[in-house]
DNA-binding transcriptional ArsR family regulator
Amino acid sequence: MITVATRLDAMHRLGRAMADPTRSRILLRLLDAPAYPAALAEELGLTRQNVSNHLACLRDCGIVVVEPEGRQSRYEISDPLIAHALSDLVQVILQVDENAPSHEPNAECC
């Protein structure tokens, strides 16, 4: 049975995961495709240690999982439903915020 406490815990974990700009950048990148920590660090201009720390937090929150591949570890969003929900959440926020910059073709620039 899902209790109020269980729902609050889930909201807390999600909020904690998205509250940090670096974790949000990592999540957005992982929505595109799974990635290795070294590649994430290079793509996002971060140190490997920084990325590893944030990935550990996201893993502890249950939002990402690690898939060992030989000597490397690949990270991905833990469940397609989470990926879908995160994508939908971003889209809704962009639609609600009239001042958000648009990156659609033929859109007027802010």
Q: What stands out?
A: The longest strand covers residues 64-69. The first helix runs from residue 4 to 19. Residues 4-85 form a domain with the Arc Repressor Mutant, subunit A fold (CATH 1.10.10.10).
